[in-house]
Amino acid sequence: MSDTVIRVENLAKKYILGHQKEGSSSYKSLRESMSDGAKSLGKKLLKPSGKQKVNSADNEFWALKDVSFEIKQGDRVGIIGRNGAGKSTLLKVLSRITEPTSGSIRIKGRVASLLEVGTGFHPELTGRENVFLNGAILGMGKVEIQRKFDEIVAFAEVEKFLDTPVKRYSSGMYVRLAFAVAAHMEPEILIVDEVLAVGDSNFQKKCLGKMENVASEGRTVMFVSHSMETVTRLCNTAVLLNNGSVQSSGTTNKVINAYLKSDFGTTAQRRWNNISRAPGNDVVRLVEVKVHGEDGDVTDSYDITKPIGITMTYEVLMNEKSFTHSINLFNENGVNILNSHDIVSELRKQPRAKGYYSSTMWIPGNFLSEGTVIVGVAILEQAPFVVHFHELDAVAFTVTDPMNGNSARGEYVLAWPGIVRPILKWETIKGI
Fold this sequence. Notes:
There is one protein chain. By secondary structure, the chain is an alpha/beta fold. Helix content is 23%, strand content 32%. It folds into two domains: 60-264, Rossmann fold, CATH 3.40.50; 269-400, Distorted Sandwich (Coagulation Factor XIII, Chain A, domain 1), CATH 2.70.50.60. It has helices at residues 30-46, 87-94, 127-137, 142-156, 171-183, 201-216, 228-234, 252-264, and strands at residues 4-17, 59-72, 76-80, 102-107, 111-114, 189-192, 220-224, 237-242, 245-251, 269-271, 284-292, 301-303, 308-316, 324-331, 336-341, 355-363, 371-381, 386-400. The strands form four sheets. It has a six-stranded mixed β-sheet with strand order 5-6-7-3-8-9, sandwiched between helices. Strands 12-18-17-14-15 form a five-stranded mixed β-sheet. The chain has a four-stranded antiparallel β-sheet with strand order 10-11-13-16, with no helix packed on it. Strand 6 (189-192), helix 6 (201-216) and strand 7 (220-224) form a beta-alpha-beta unit. Helix 4 crosses helix 5 (171-183). The longest helix has 17 residues, at 30-46. It is globular.
């Protein structure tokens, strides 16, 4: 189709991993490299002709395997997956930094890539000189660079160090300048790896804002990130890589849910049909955990302004036991958002009869922040303290902001920090 700007078909990339001998160094001087090359040439000349044996120490590693997808003009695509899934390799192949082993790539439009800190920079040259060098490498003409030079420098916030060799720059200054050049070349396609983590939080917000502006102008953005919150906010589509292959592609929420399922074996609902294998003991065992709205419907994504219920169903196997319930919430980075014990329901104080029970914790609207939420559930006795089960990563769901001005962010569109996002009471009066 005419609006397809990237088409990848059956893409594969193979590396040959050579194992070094024990005690050898990965670094060689120029003299050592030349000496080794001469020895190698001598061995080849002296060795009889014929089929050579493949070194058994070498091992094939497929960083990408049979990868296929299409990206439309104006798409904001998040590339997600665990470390080693092939995300950075994919971007390097798309950026023509690395040749694929097999498969085909069709790209329509000018591509700007920011994959590694300082790529295309010469350490001995100044920041000013590297703007022109890096811009030329990315395909910008001298007149275009001159026209945008002041804007690039102001964005990178390196005015004071413009005539200083970049070898004296911090990693943060490197990435600021590199991103500024790449983002201001007005590419049809902007490819960014998660090098933004090097910069401070204010610059990260600025970069994300710039990428949002690029996307709003109808250009395409590909972005690798481990932050599901950032991917949810920035991207309208996503691709999940697992062991070098595409595990899922489509809308952002769909792909993030697939990622959570692959990581935790969970979505927003999980049931243990075999009671003998369910979390718990001879006193009580977990049957089901689900996340739902006020209407009881279970989905994987929830509007930030609406209440969210988390219900655990369990079976009491022993009479006359009293216990309470606990739920823990974590974000995708493992930060503990909150822990809640049931200290309000009357049933927690009463000895239970055998049977099935359900306990629901309600999270009010405009309380959680955007992003992925991972749920742990537990049942415990207070005195003496006994934990009957504590199932971490039981279920997971995503909180999204509809951007309609009804959340705590109001009309603000850039990143909003914080683990929770309540709308608090404010009062303003005239005078003192």
